[in-house]
Amino acid sequence: MAENGEDKLIATVQHIIKTLGSTDSMTEDILKVFSNYDGRLSLDKLHGKRDAAGGGGGGGGGGSSEEQQHVPITSFERTLRTLDRQVTQVINQERLIWSESEAAEGFLEAVDDLIATIKDLEAAPHGNNQPLLDRADDLLQRCMFRLEREFKSLIERPDDAAPAAPSRPTGFDSDESDEYEYDEDIEDARIPIARPVTDYDVVIDALPPGSVSDLHKIARRMVAAGFGRECAETYVVARKGFLEESVARLGLRPRTAEEVKSAPWDELELDIARWIPAFNMVFKILIPSERRLCDRLFDGLLPYGDMAFAGASRPPALQLLSFADAVAAASRTPERLFRVVDMYESARDLLPELETIFSDEYSCALRNEVATVCSAVGSSIKGIFMELENLIRRDPVRVSVPVHGGGLHPITRYVMNYLRAACGSRQTLEEVMEGGEFGPMSVGPVDPDRPTSSLAIHIAWIMDVLQKNLDAKSEVYREPALSCVFLMNNGKYILQKVKDSELGVLLGEEWSKQMNSKVRRWTREYHRVWAKIISVLQINDGGVRPEKLRVFNNYLEENCKTQAEWLIADEQMRLDLRMSIMDSVVPAYRTFLSRLKAISDCRDVYVKFTPEDVEAWIGELFQGTEKR
């Protein structure tokens, strides 16, 4: 009896459906209403009775030839129609789906059902399923397009996908307005420039946890539907604005290689000073934070998280790397060494950290590009040292006016201060120099007592080139004694700069001994001019003649007046040289005067200077422009 009653109820419902269901869509709606109203009126039972009776939507009355030829609706088609209505209603709405959590969850469930239906259709015997499969694929594609839109909006506007002020990530700026500086060189002066950061052990959470969870749900559906690559590409597009603004806040602006090549050094130096902290910020904070976000958002969805990370990280990384590459390829004048060394050290120190961050197949190319740029900057450092050598070689030897008074030559001061400062980065320079051989240095003889690192050999070579240049410059002076003074001054300055510095370590003790020996030799050669004067006072077989005193007076007066304008730059060396002259000249003069006075016919007219006067004359030597 119960079954008869149920059959009558189903028959009545079938009659209502047949009478009111003028279209397939209306029929499905009515079926769904009855199935929700009474558990006995399930969709399967209603469809089964209706199909068995040859019923169908489309207009009252039964038994027509058209109805007899109607193909019974399949379970797949019913499911697909139901999903089509559910999904289309959501897709067509203007507001974002994720502005309402319930609507979002319902849409995701419908997408799950659609993906499952497609898999069932693909697994079923092929028969007449292809039209249904085409419809399902088309519907799935529409769902994916909508999910892409939602995915992009959740990334760009995570606050319920509503417009919001630009985020201020930790490590880039602060909520306080006075934390910003504005750079007029940036095209959009409204972009705030972040203050320098010294602690890079921070992570930027650019999206709230709830948004990350929603994005993961969307990504999971897109991957399941075969749209993983599109999802990763959408992520890259959505993150572009944030990443570009983050780099802009670091005070950098894109520069072409030609702009870098033609830029004045003071301007380029400022850009490099900005580049170094920006490079650390991007590779130590921004990119690792992007890696963390991708890992969370695409958790368990390999390789699409790696694809998204590589695509998002590449533009800001390449902007920085292309600048460094352009600097490495630009002019290699010696003045650029110190900034270029800073760039090299930044890239070199970062490489070990990138092993983990760029470990997958999609981003490992970025790590290789950092290594390539690091190598290019290292080659630039080598080139700068070679240019320093060329600069010394090109410094003119035959100049119209030599250095006044035989003083310190500007090229000596420049080279020695340059090398001394450069050796402050000795470890880095040795590392760079070991990476390749350097022209003549690699074939030149190496002193067994001299340090043999590539940097030590290179600096020794530069010192040899400098010394040869100074030797040639000394020949410009007409007076041999002044040439010696010039070499003494420059040699002493070189020794002072080498002493107690990394230069001394690199050049070695033997080199310093040889240089000291040269300075002593030049000093001895200088003393020859005084030996000529002293020779006049020598008492030989002719005895003491008063005429010799007159010659001595002329020599002494002429030499002292001339050499008072010569310069010995080092104070101690000046005092030592004066004392050595006095020790050789004054005693000889005293002896000569004493012997002269012993002669009865000697007249005082020949005695022009007392020994004290001679000491005073000599005591005023080598003051340069500081005359008596």
TrEMBL record:
GO terms for cellular component: exocyst. GO terms for molecular function: phosphatidylinositol-4,5-bisphosphate binding. Keywords: Exocytosis, Protein transport, Transport. It comes from the Eukaryota. Residues 48-69, 156-181 are annotated as: Disordered. Gene3D superfamilies: Exocyst complex component Exo70 (1.20.1280.170). One of its GO terms (biological process) is exocytosis. Residues 274-618 form the Exocyst complex subunit Exo70 C-terminal domain. Residues 53-64 have a biased composition (Gly residues). Component of the exocyst complex. Belongs to the EXO70 family. This is Exocyst subunit Exo70 family protein. It comes from Carex littledalei.
